[in-house]
Amino acid sequence: MTATSVGSGFTRARPRTVRRWPTYNLFRRRAEPDLVCAVPNDFPVPAFVTGEAWTFAGSIDAPSAAPPGFSAEMAERGAETCGFHLFHQLPAAAATVDAWRAAG
C-alpha cells in the first residue's frame, strides 16, 4: 500500500497497482536460430520480423515458460523503448533448445 496525505492530516492508504506478466510472441531468425525477437502480444510486429528471414517460434505467458536467455526486465525495457526485445537463446538444457529450434 502507498499512502497519500489528506487535507485533514490523516493518511489514506491506496492499493498498489498489480503488474501482470505480459504475453510475448517469439520470432526466431532462420539463419541464426539462437537469435530471438520477443514482441509483447499487444504491440505490432516489427517490419524486419515480417520477412522470410524470421519464423514464429511460439509465445510465452509466464516466467516459467520463458526460454533460456530471456530476461523479463530487459524485455520490458525493450518494449517500452522500441516495441520489441532481441536476445540470444542460451543452451541451458539441450531438450529445451531443440524444442525451440524445432518450433519454426
Question: In words, what does this structure look like?
Answer:
The protein has 104 residues and is α+β, with helices and mostly antiparallel strands. The protein has one domain. It has two helices and six strands. It is globular.
Count of alpha and pi helical runs: 2
> Could you give the count of β-strands?
6
Helix percent reads 10-25%
Q: Sheet bearing the most strands, described?
A: 4 strands, antiparallel
Rounded Rg: 19 Å
Name the strands of the widest sheet in spatial order. 5-3-4-6
Estimated share of beta-strand residues: 25-35%
> What number of domains?
1
Question: Low-confidence segments, ≥5 residues, pLDDT <50?
Answer: none
Mean pLDDT: 80
Write the H/E string, N to C: EEEEEHEH
Tell me the overall shape.
Answer: globular
Q: Structural class, from helix and strand content?
A: alpha+beta
Query: What's the N-to-C terminus distance?
Result: 44 Å
List the helices and strands and how they pair.
Elements: E1 2-5, E2 11-14, E3 24-29, E4 35-40, E5 54-60, H1 72-82, E6 85-88, H2 94-102
Antiparallel strand pairs: 1-2, 3-4, 3-5, 4-6
Give a brief outline of the structure.
By secondary structure, the protein is α+β, with helices and mostly antiparallel strands. It has helices at residues 72-82, 94-102, and strands at residues 2-5, 11-14, 24-29, 35-40, 54-60, 85-88.
